[in-house]
Design a protein that fits this description.
The protein is an alpha+beta fold and 345 residues long. The protein is built from 12 helices and 9 strands. It has 2 domains: 97 residues, Phosphorylase Kinase, domain 1, CATH 3.30.200.20; 238 residues, Transferase(Phosphotransferase), domain 1. This is Os04g0369300 protein.
């Protein structure tokens, strides 16, 4: 292997190392599959890692690709999955991340919807706060990093259900202006659909949708393709928000906190997005709400995700790691029209 820029902590792995670590890309090593490739659990020098194959890039892009990854390797935050290095000796670059033992927020939400677990309001707000802090950190770097595909499947849950934002590597490598939209139905900012220009406010919008999911227990798009954001706005307008909330967290003692969290979500979803709060502001408010006395009175029972078997409950691929949902990728004009309709105000 070869180190890049000395103490940066970025490693260029060679082809043999990757093939050996993945059992020559054995199916038994696969821990996720999605629109941007396959993810393998592997062992490199005695360290458990996740190896993801990105989309194919041409030779002229490889230098810029490595430069971007070197920047990403410098990101050090307890709520961000650590990027360790890559291998460029395949058609599609192989990106090596730290391995996170548990599952994803998507899976936790699916379990909550099926009533297999009870996830307290405090746990939901803490996971939201940690995720917001991770995004705020990315946005505030000297070389800001925009995620571009914020969704529950890209928030891993480590031991103790600690949130770790993942899959922010490929988004920053794309051109700033894209010919076609990328992202996930239900989470894409309507502003982004107008010009395909990625900004920090797009991440804020997507995060707002996640916050709604945590409060309501509902999916971002219903089977009828109706968006959760439009249902939320109607509930606010007609003073029926309580009916939309997840019954597992509705409690008279915590309604003040719930309404404050709902108003924060509303601010994140404002269109146009110029007046949306920065992720730093969102994170600070969520941390305050998560630590509120009325929330802390209800401790979370221990939840263990790694040994559970998950099933498909609504068309999406569960047991997903590092952007392994059915989304993330390129959408045609027909899908764009569906998205635009779903986000109609």
């Amino acid at each position: 292997m070869m180190k890049v820029e000395g103490n940066v902590g970025f490693t260029l792995f060679d082809r043999v190392q990757i093939e050996t670590a993945t059992g020559n890309f054995s199916k038994t090593h696969i821990i996720g599959e999605g629109g941007q490739g396959t993810v393998y659990k592997a062992d490199l020098d005695g360290v458990a890692v996740a190896i993801k194959q990105c989309k194919e890039i041409d030779e002229s892009m490889k230098r810029d690709f490595v430069q971007e990854l070197v920047i990403l390797c410098r990101v050090n935050h307890p709520n961000i999955v650590k990027l360790l290095g890559c291998c460029l000796q395949f058609k599609g670059p192989m990106i090596v991340y730290e391995f996170v033992q548990n599952k994803t927020l998507q899976e936790l939400l699916d379990l909550q919807r099926s009533r297999r677990f009870h996830v307290t309001l405090g746990t939901r707000l803490r996971i939201a706060a940690e995720s917001a802090e991770a995004l705020a950190h990315l946005h505030c770097l000297p070389h800001p990093i925009l995620h571009g595909d914020v969704k529950p499947a890209n928030i891993l849950l480590a031991e103790g259900l600690i949130a770790k934002v993942s899959d922010f590597g490929c988004s920053t490598i794309d051109e700033e202006n894209q010919a076609v939209p990328k992202g996930t139905p239900g989470y894409i900012d309507p502003d982004y659909l107008l010009e395909y220009q990625l900004t920090s406010k797009n991440d804020v919008y997507s995060f707002g949708v996640i916050l709604l999911e945590l409060l309501t227990g509902k999916k971002p798009l219903s089977k009828e393709r109706r968006s959760l954001t439009s249902m939320f706005q109607e509930a606010i307008a007609h003073d029926t928000l309580r009916e939309l909330l997840d019954i597992d967290i509705v409690d008279e003692a915590s309604m003040r906190v719930i309404y404050r969290a709902a108003m924060l979500a509303s601010q994140c979803l404002v269109v146009p997005g110029t007046t949306r709060p920065a992720m730093t502001v969102v994170a600070e408010e969520l941390r305050r709400l998560a630590l509120a006395d009325e929330v802390q009175r209800c401790p979370q029972s221990p939840l263990v995700l790694e040994d559970l078997s998950f099933t498909d409950t609504g068309g999406s691929t569960v047991s997903i790691w590092y952007n392994g949902s059915q989304t993330s990728g390129v959408y045609n004009l027909e899908k764009k029209a569906v998205l635009s309709t779903g986000f109609a105000r």
